[in-house]
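Budget justification aside, the reviewers requested a transparent look at the raw inputs and outputs of the sequence design task funded under Objective 1. We therefore reproduce one unedited record. The lines immediately below are the structure tokens for a 107-residue chain.
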């Protein structure tokens, strides 16, 4: 399964349940062979340490817990937008994706 995601952090547009729906979707597909990629807009996650900063909202921490629960591997380690890793690639197999390159980090 290949999936693309854009997670807007604008709750006025997408509603308060956006976080819950995204985590529910991850739970639905996490037992399949998958590549899920896109702009998830979670600047408060440090993917190299697999942790969140103390100032993030619960949705960010809950998302990271869901990723861990589903045993998903996140392959992007370098910033994709200024200093944040917002664009992510998830798989169940750490060998499925290699040589991720960021060509521009935008402003």
């Amino acid at each position: 399964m290949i999936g693309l995601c854009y997670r807007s952090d604008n709750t006025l547009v997408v509603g308060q349940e956006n976080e819950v729906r995204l985590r529910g979707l991850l739970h639905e597909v996490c037992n399949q062979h998958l590549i899920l990629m896109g702009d998830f807009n979670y600047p408060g996650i440090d993917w190299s340490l697999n942790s969140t900063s103390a100032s993030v909202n619960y949705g960010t921490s809950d998302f990271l817990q869901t990723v861990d629960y589903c045993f998903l591997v996140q392959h992007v380690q370098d910033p994709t937008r200024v200093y944040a890793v917002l664009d992510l690639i998830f798989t169940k197999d750490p060998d499925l994706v290699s040589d991720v390159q960021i060509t521009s980090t935008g402003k």
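The helical segments are 11-14, 18-29, 58-69. The first helix runs from residue 11 to 14. Computational costs for records of this kind are itemized in the attached budget.
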